[in-house]
Here is the input.
Amino acid sequence: MNKTHDNRAWFFVLPVVALVAFNAIIPLMTVVNYSVQETFGDNVFFWAGVTWFEQILRSPRFHDALTRQLIFTFTILLIEVPLGVAIALTMPRKGPWVPVCLVLMALPLLIPWNVVGAMWNIFALPDIGLLGRSLNALGFDYNFTRQPGDAWFTLILMDVWHWTSLVVLLAYAGLVSIPDAYYQAAKIDGARPFAIFRYIQLPKMKRVLTIAVLLRFMDSFMIYTELSVLTGGGPGNATTLLSIDLVKIALGQFDLGPAAAMSLIYFLIILLLSWVFYTLMMRNEQQ
Amino acid sequence: MKRMTRLVPALYILFLMLPIYWLVNMSFKTTNEILGSFTLFPKQFTIENYVTIFTDPTWYMGYVNSLTYVLINTAISVVVALPAAYAFSRYRFLGDKHLFFWLLTNRMAPPAVFALPFFQLYSAIGLFDTPVAVALAHTLFNIPLAVWILEGFMSGVPKELDETAYVDGHSFWSFFLKIFVPTIAAGIGVAAFFCFMFSWVELLLAKTLTSVAAKPIAATMTRTASTSGYELGLLAAAGTLTIIPGAFVIYFVRNYIAKGFALGRV
Here is the structure.
């Protein structure tokens, strides 16, 4: 669409800017303020410069949390995206089952995050949970509150349960936007199913899949509530991802300086990702 | 082959339903049955857990509080996002691209980063422990989201609609409210749904900004889980009840939900 150039459009965005600025800039400045100071309580602050940033960037604890975070994010992406596309491809395109499928699949997305955590906790408990009990009955020694491997397995399964539907819905929306004529033409040309997927379906899904991948990438970086209810970062520190670690430092130990510095580093990582996301989207849009 | 492929979505839905089934199953059991035996169906079927929730104000007020801030948030977000989305979809103006990107970064801000500063900010302006505080805090990510979704829908409306209306003698606001808003009613519905959803599922900020008077249901549940030991049946019943509003509203937007997640860009 060719847009008119008119700076008076600023009046339309002013309420949004005012509200979001109030919520974003003041808290962010508070964080910046804490990140360069040292406090011994009683509201007495000393200038600390970049001490906290150095401390965080050098601390093995932060490195470990970041590594775990990256492992988690890439694992769920590798599972959720192909699985989501596969499910979208096999879903019915028309008929009475379509709305049923859509509503049932979207259901996990609408459940409060702490309930997701609590539900999976109950579901996976080795003695009274359906999953835990079944796995133990099958001969696996499964206990997600004691064994790090099991905790990771449960965490990833929970995230797949929670968010694969997002990929399914987006991929499905891309698929139904393909006109029937494309398939008929492919049939006349004698194209194999894989060729149809590669040259018709995948290009049509590209745009929505970009959004799906990047939304999952960024939201998995922010995972907190489900995880804190399910394992609380344990056993030990086995599932302590970035935001869990941050809340432990900020609200648990009340180490304002290091917590603020870590917040900023964390936020900068996400900002970088958002920029990549935005650039990719805009490039997609122009095509 | 055709029948085999039908199995994939069916199995996936089965996988989605299992934990929910277990939660609902548990909500109808007594604490003794939950801890004492492993049963696939409630043997001593009881609705006592639900009775407790509906008669104890600390429980049912949790739902009232949650719904209050979710609805306030949805109203604020959609109302301020409408003109902004219109500006982004129709005009170029100084710094428009940067502004759009800045809004996006707030959708991506981890709530964990903002928890402590939000607590101090809302305490300082005297809104701590009110539904308004949570509603305002949630606009941080919901306004950008609403702007994005609405902008996507509005860009699909041809500009000729605006121009014809002006030729017909409509003023801007008369055109905007009487012609444009009804035209993108579906988009507004989707944006409202997403604001509702993200405000409904968020807990960290909601919990940080409330203590007693405006405590959301999610926080009431956390307290039960951690302090009063094993009241699993009660917890399961409360969890089951939180699924219902989502299941209810999802039906109305079933055909648009993907478009909403794609920020109006399918």
Observations:
- Chain A touches chain B through 100 residues (CB under 8 Å).
- The two ends of chain A are 13 Å apart (CA to CA).
- The mean pLDDT of chain A is 85.
- The first strand of chain A starts at residue 4 and ends at 5.
